[in-house]
């Protein structure tokens, strides 16, 4: 992996901007999640695992409607009103390019969000803990909105949506750890976490170190 541009002043400046917006967004995200969790009343009828999974599926539907379908609509309207109505014409405005990137990125993020949310709902035990599913959904939707708006303001400002991805990773780690514990106790819970963080450490090292 080549990292010869890591020390470039312009790259450092851009990285500083990205980190600044991530640092700004994280406490806001945590406050939003905690506010949703503690201010919402307990959800009724959540004692049955099937009811919890159905509720989580409905939350996924809301998230997809507000974050993914709207992206599809944004691209569709852009194409309808411009020469981009022919996708092979090669006509793309900056706004269309950003909306296409948002759409692709949101599709990728859904692959983290949806299974994690379903797993989280399964491991919640009652209507009180199920508030975590609502809080997670709200944060993900708001983070997607921040990513989209920030991208249109300036590509580096898309970093404001980073906590949404971080939340999805945390939820997946929790679900995998719970699953591992059910299968093999503490060693089973630790195994996916250790493997993930080892891979993450390698990626961090490989992208910071210039290629030989």
Verbal overview:
The protein is mainly alpha-helical. It has one domain (9-208): Membrane associated eicosanoid/glutathione metabolism-like domain (Four Helix Bundle (Hemerythrin (Met), subunit A)). It has 5 helices and no strands. It has helices at 9-39, 49-80, 94-123, 131-153, 162-208. Helix 1 (9-39) runs antiparallel to helix 4 (131-153) and helix 4 (131-153) crosses helix 5 (162-208). The longest helix is centred in the last third of the chain and has 47 residues, at 162-208. It is globular. 24% of the residues are buried.
Keywords for this entry:
5 helices, 212 residues, mainly alpha, globular, Four Helix Bundle (Hemerythrin (Met), subunit A), single chain
Largest sheet: none
Number of helices: 5
Q: Quaternary state, please? A: single chain
What is the CATH H-level superfamily? Membrane associated eicosanoid/glutathione metabolism-like domain
Q: Beta-strand percentage?
A: under 5%
Given the helix and strand composition, which structural class is it?
mainly alpha
Average of per-residue pLDDT values: 93
First-last Cα distance? 9 Å
> What is the count of β-strands?
0
* Uncertain residue ranges: none
What is the N-to-C order of secondary-structure elements (H for helix, E for strand)?
Answer: HHHHH
Named CATH architecture: Up-down Bundle
The 3D shape can be described as globular
Q: What portion of residues is helical?
A: over 70%
Radius of gyration: 20 Å
CATH class category name: Mainly Alpha
Total individual domains: 1
| CATH fold-level topology | Four Helix Bundle (Hemerythrin (Met), subunit A)
């Amino acid at each position: 992996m080549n990292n010869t541009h890591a020390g470039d002043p312009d790259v450092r400046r851009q990285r500083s901007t990205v980190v600044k917006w991530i640092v700004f967004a994280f406490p806001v995200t945590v406050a939003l999640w905690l506010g949703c969790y503690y201010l919402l009343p307990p959800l009724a009828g959540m004692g049955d695992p099937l009811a919890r999974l159905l509720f989580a599926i409905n939350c996924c539907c809301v998230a997809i409607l507000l974050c993914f379908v709207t992206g599809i609509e944004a691209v569709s309207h852009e194409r309808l009103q411009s020469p981009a109505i022919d996708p092979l014409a090669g006509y793309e405005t900056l706004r269309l390019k950003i909306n296409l990137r948002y759409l692709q990125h949101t599709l990728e993020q859904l692959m983290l969000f949806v299974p994690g949310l379903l797993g989280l709902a399964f491991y919640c035990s009652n209507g009180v803990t199920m508030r975590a599913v609502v809080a997670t959904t709200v944060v993900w939707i708001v983070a997607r909105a921040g990513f989209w708006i920030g991208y249109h303001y300036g590509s580096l400002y898309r970093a404001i949506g980073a906590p949404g991805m971080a939340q999805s990773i945390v939820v997946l780690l929790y679900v995998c750890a719970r699953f591992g514990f059910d299968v093999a106790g503490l060693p089973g819970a630790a195994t996916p976490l250790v493997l993930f963080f080892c891979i993450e450490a390698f990626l961090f090292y490989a992208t910071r170190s210039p290629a030989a």
